Amino acid sequence: MSHVAAATLPAASKTATQENFPVASLLLHASKRATVMAYYHFARHADDIADSPTLTPEEKLAGLDALEAGLLGSADSPAVVLATTYAETVGGNAGLIEHAAQLLHAFRRDAVRDFCEDWGDLMAYCRYSAAPVGRFLLDLHGESHDTFPPGDALCNALQVLNHLQDCGKDYAQLKRVYLPRDWLREAGLTVQVLDEKASPPELRAVIDRMLDATDGLIDLAQPLPGMIKDLRLRLQTAVTVKVAEALSKRLRTGDPLAERVKLSPLATFGAFVSGIVHGLTV
After folding, report:
1. Position 239 in a domain
2. How many percent of the chain have pLDDT more than 90?
3. Which residue from 265, 259, 233 is spatially nearest to 246, judged by alpha carbons?
4. What's the rounded Cα separation, in Å, for the pair 147 and 68?
5. What is the CA 186 to chain-centroid distance, rounded?
6. Which residue among 113, 135, 151 closes a domain?
7. Number of domains making up the chain
8. Quick check: 16 pLDDT over 90?
9. Domain check: are 212 and 138 in the same one?
10. 171: which residues sit within 8 A by CB, 6+ positions away?
11. Contact criterion met (CB below 8 Å) for 246 and 198
12. The domain boundary residue, chosen from 113, 147, 168
């Protein structure tokens, strides 16, 4: 991909405050926020390359390769400034750079593939699209790698919840489907069901099946706050678990084809308070 193509992508499709993941949270220590935001801007730029409606798959892959070269210090152009900025922000720390580089595996897949075959395939995708975010935060705070398995579960749950929130938009704008294709087939559906303005009962059953599996991931994440030594990260993680629980419940009753399913301000505040209390008592 040319440097011009990468440098002139549209403005980021999301801001930090619109993410399910803790990005710009004031709960995190101020000394960590610049690094967290550098990671976020790198990830958002890579995601926007993979989702660009104007770039070819080959151009997308070239752009993502350029970002990886920037992480490793072997490229210098306006197109990869976010990668080099992140690498400089973490002082060349190999582990933290790897957590950024792993995201590129998922974005490369998005550039050339528009479906997940089954739940295992979706989890393999989340291993690179979501889990590195949690591992980055845990490593940044010096936590034990024993926290990685429950951290992966939490991040994967948040990723699936986001896929469900955006299932109609992802299909309309990108023709991309993260609902397991075999579950759709078993329900007698094709991906074209995502063109509907409301979910038929068969799709509702697939969504609920995904939420059942996601609730299992949230259960696996429950020990995580108690394993984290850094108080601020522990509080943020406890809040994030509560947000995941609340959003899963909201998706049980909301229809992502009919509306953007999200937490109300009151529900968000409730999850925040509940998470703080839990984080202070584990």
Report:
1. yes
2. 85
3. 265
4. 26
5. 27
6. 113
7. 2
8. no
9. yes
10. 177, 191, 194, 195
11. no
12. 113
> Residue 64 belongs to what domain range?
1-6+26-113
Inside any domain, residue 129: yes
Residue 105 CA to residue 46 CA, distance in Å, equals 10
Long-range contacts of 60-66 (CB under 8 A, 24+ apart): 60/1, 60/107, 60/108, 60/111, 61/1, 61/108, 61/111, 61/112, 62/1, 63/1, 63/5, 63/6, 64/104, 64/107, 64/108, 64/111, 66/1, 66/3, 66/6
Query: What residues contact residue 258 under an 8 Å CB cut-off, 6+ apart?
Result: 197, 198, 199
Same domain, 167 and 46: no
Does 167 lie in the same domain as 47? no
Q: Two tokens at 68? A: 């990886």
In angstroms, how far is the first alpha carbon of the chain from the final one?
49
Residue 20 lies in a domain: no
Q: What is the pTM of this model?
A: 0.90
Give domain status of residue 250, yes or no: yes
| Cα separation, 228 vs 234, whole angstroms | 5
What's the whole-number average pLDDT of the chain?
91
**CA distances to 53, 79, 281 from 213, in Å:** 31, 39, 28
Q: Does one domain contain both 127 and 263? A: yes
d(CA 139, CA 217): 21
* Alpha helix ranges (H) inside 3-118: 3-7, 30-51, 57-71, 81-89, 94-112
Find the CATH number of the domain harbouring 226.
1.10.600.10
> Does 72 lie in the same domain as 151?
no
Residue with tokens 């998706």: 251
pLDDT band at 169 (very low <50, low <70, confident <90, very high): very high
